[in-house]
Design goal:
It contains 22 helices and 23 strands. It is of the alpha+beta class. It has an 8-stranded mixed β-sheet. Strands 11-21-22-12-23 form a 5-stranded antiparallel β-sheet.
Length: 747
């Protein structure tokens, strides 16, 4: 009978009732659990739990019963929010429309913000569905309505564009959103424009009072992104009229701009000192942080952003600093909800996002007295910096202080993993074609970080090691014997290529190595993949390692895909439809296009910060500089990402050449130029029945896929090179609009 009972129990368990996917995600996040922790407890893969939460898949026995039990227990601890009471304010779903209405007729959005706590994992970037990123969780929850109070109003003359990220959220502490833009209206009233169209009256008469009001009454901020992490501090953006009201200059003088701050003796700083507020070491500049030392777990800190002091760099934020307050709140609110509340420049925010997702410490299990202590958070970089390997150190680093003053390190002394800047003269056959077509890899460096194993701790020096592709580090090895004229392009499948028109995968300039040089693990692994033996001379390897950047990649990918979907570019479009959707996408909603630009800059800038160089500070070669004191100063991680990104691109180029006989004319970072008879990428990319070449270039919006960068005529290319007497001028730099300058816009 026991077998029959077991069979009956299994049958019941197979139909165990589960809440909807969005509720599963909410319950996990409410308890501070990560996807990894749930997957570990249920003995399934991380991607499996991610699929259950996105609704792509449903759990099966025996995991289904255990998962249902977990969710039932969490539901008892964290019951679903009760239905909102009826109010006068209209409730609308907190989602963007693909084609927004004109500004004067847009609806004010007041629904709850998408939860920012979890990072979903995709097993394969190129096949991740658009729905996972393009449909924020907020769209599945009922919209919240608010009853205007004495401190909030929605004046008819001040209608904001839909913010996409609404004012409210599940956390009542932050019900007015992550940030506010403070402005003074024509009547002299100080107003705070929040996300979702909410406008608050600001009673504060000074900057110290504004900080107090922000922390006590404004209900601004953002929940932490990781269980052991910290909630985001509220962000206050000051417009020029607000600066005047609070006694701050509308613009910095040249000296102040160079110093990055106003003088310590400024009256506003004296006001803050009298009120016992402190400023961080960077002082009162474009991104000022005003705080009091934490009391226990309570933080008292407000971030200021001052656009007229160039806080929002026009290279990444476009004309955001010139937008009306409500529009600026909407734009920054979208970025905050999908990436994080800005903590400074896009580069600073990119680095801060890594730490927010992997805080250095966590609370320990209770000791014998029931007390918890701070301990190392596994998978993080810890709270203490580690020295890099000598070969990874940039020039001027303290590790190199004993080198002769004018010594120039060569490839055998210095790791030089950088993006491509390569070009070659066109062949006679290419000159008979009509066009040069550029394709650009979407979020190339983010894709390079996806799934990458990087070092978490200090390096270990090894002599004559056996190469291990799974071990992150830097390897001194001779790769000059790798011959691109014959390479492996699959298991036991070799291809004969024209190496004279291919860049080497091992150097940024595409030159073949001449002897031993330092390379990151992905570069050496690629030499093995091409079918060649490698024998490292020595190495600096990191035995403590992990996929530190996965959560960072997932969050930025989802932010990018969701925002592009709002602009009408979905991840599941056919190649032709994708090219059509990309044509003029920025004009559909210029503000959202700025968010896309900022997300891209967050990727590149965050990775760049991993090897931040001295910035003034009276630094001299051989002395430490400020960035070296950060655990996130990790040039080895930056090198590994760049190495993998360059290798990913070269692999596609090889596959394409082996199948089509076509070779690139120029490569700049993530942009590749080919000669073709037509003006479209479809005129040379080998699609068959709508399917791309396996392992080659594929059109699409997902990170790692490619878009059309630009097309010019072959005659244009030849004329430009002749004009500058440069037969190898990198045409990829100018392919976008044909304008030849010495400026690289980073696209």
């Amino acid at each position: 009978m026991s077998e029959l009972f077991d069979a009956v129990d299994a049958l019941v368990a197979s139909r165990a009732t589960l809440p909807p996917p969005a509720e599963r995600k909410r319950l996990r996040a409410a308890h501070g659990l990560t996807i990894d922790e749930v997957a570990g407890a249920l003995k399934v893969r991380r991607a499996t739990v991610s699929g259950w939460e996105s609704g792509k898949t449903e759990p099966r026995p025996p995991e289904r019963d255990a998962y249902a039990r977990l969710l039932d227990q969490l539901a008892e601890l964290y019951p679903a929010p009760s239905a909102p009471e009826e109010t006068d304010a209209p409730a609308v779903p907190a989602t963007f429309t693909t084609a927004p209405a004109p500004a004067e007729s847009r609806t004010l959005s007041t629904g709850p913000a998408p939860e920012a706590a979890d990072m979903t994992a995709a097993e394969n970037t190129q096949t991740s569905p658009a729905s996972a990123a393009a449909a924020p969780e907020a769209a599945t929850r009922p919209a919240r309505t608010t009853r205007p109070s004495s401190t909030s109003r929605r004046p008819g003359a001040k209608k904001a564009a839909p913010a996409g990220t609404p004012a409210g959220g599940n956390d009542p502490r932050f019900e007015n959103g992550p940030l506010a833009v403070v402005d003074v209206d024509v009547d002299g009233q100080v107003l705070a424009y929040c996300t979702g169209g909410l406008v608050l009256d600001v009673p504060a008469k000074s900057i110290p009072a504004l900080v107090d009001w922000t922390l006590r009454e404004a209900k601004l901020g953002q929940p932490k992104l990781s269980g052991p992490g910290k909630d985001a501090d509220p962000l206050i953006v000051l417009t020029p009229s607000a600066l005047e009201r609070y006694g701050l200059p509308v613009a910095l003088t040249d000296d102040e701009r160079l110093a990055g701050r106003i003088p310590e003796g400024h009256k506003v700083i004296k006001q803050l000192v009298r009120a016992e507020w402190k400023l961080t070491k960077r002082g009162f500049g474009p991104w000022a942080r005003i705080y009091r030392p934490a009391q226990g777990s309570e933080r008292a800190c407000v971030q200021l952003c001052i656009p007229s002091w160039n806080a929002l760099d026009t290279r990444h934020w476009g004309e955001a600093g010139q937008l009306p307050p409500a529009e600026l709140a909407r734009l920054l609110g979208v970025y905050a909800s999908r990436v994080m509340t800005p903590r400074g420049s896009t580069a600073v925010t990119g680095l801060e996002l890594m730490t927010a997702l992997h805080p250095p410490t966590r609370a320990s299990e209770p000791d014998a007295d029931g007390k918890r202590h701070s301990e190392h958070n596994p998978g993080s970089l810890g709270k203490d910096p580690v020295d890099c390997a000598p070969c990874e150190a940039p020039d001027g680093h303290p590790l190199l202080k004993d080198l002769p003053r004018f010594h120039v390190r060569g490839p055998g002394e210095k790791l030089f993993e950088e993006a491509y800047d390569w070009a070659r003269p066109m062949t006679d056959a290419e000159c008979t074609l009509r066009h040069l077509v550029g394709i650009d890899v979407n979020m190339a460096f983010a894709a390079g970080a996806n799934g990458l194993v990087v070092g978490l701790g200090a390096p270990t020096h090894v002599k004559a090691p056996v190469f291990d592709a799974k071990l992150p580090g830097s390897w001194l090895v001779d790769l000059s014997h790798v011959d691109l004229s014959r390479v492996k392009v699959g298991k036991d499948k070799w291809a004969d290529l024209d190496a004279s028109v291919l860049p080497s995968p091992f150097t940024p300039k595409g030159e073949r190595p001449e002897g031993p040089a330092w390379y990151a693990t992905p570069t050496v692994a690629y030499a093995v993949e091409l079918g060649y033996e490698v024998r490292p001379i020595e190495a600096w390897v990191r035995y403590e390692n992990g996929r530190y950047l996965d959560g960072w990649y997932n969050r930025l990918r989802d932010a990018f895909l969701a925002t592009m979907a709002d602009l009408g570019v979905d991840a599941d479009l056919s190649p032709a439809d994708f090219l059509a959707a990309m044509d003029g996408y920025k004009e559909r909603d210029p503000e959202l296009a700025i968010v896309v630009s900022a997300i891209k800059a967050t990727v590149k800038g965050g990775l760049g910060k991993l090897r931040e160089r001295p910035r003034g500070e009276g630094w001299r070669p051989g002395e430490p500089w400020r960035a070296l004191s950060r655990p996130t100063w990790r040039p080895d991680i930056r090198a590994a990402v760049i190495s993998r990104t360059r290798i990913n691109l070269h692999r596609k180029i090889i596959k394409h050449a082996a199948f089509t006989g076509q070779y690139p004319v120029a490569i700049l970072s993530d942009c590749v130029v080919y000669a073709a008879d037509g003006t479209s990428p479809l005129d040379f990319l080998p699609y068959r029945d709508g399917k791309p070449l396996p392992g080659g270039f594929k059109l699409g919006i997902n990170p790692g896929l490619v878009k059309h960068e630009g097309t010019q005529t072959v005659l244009w290319g030849e004329e430009v090179r002749e004009r500058f007497n440069a037969p190898e001028l990198n045409l990829a730099r100018y392919i976008k609009d044909g304008t030849v300058t010495d400026v690289d816009n980073g696209e």
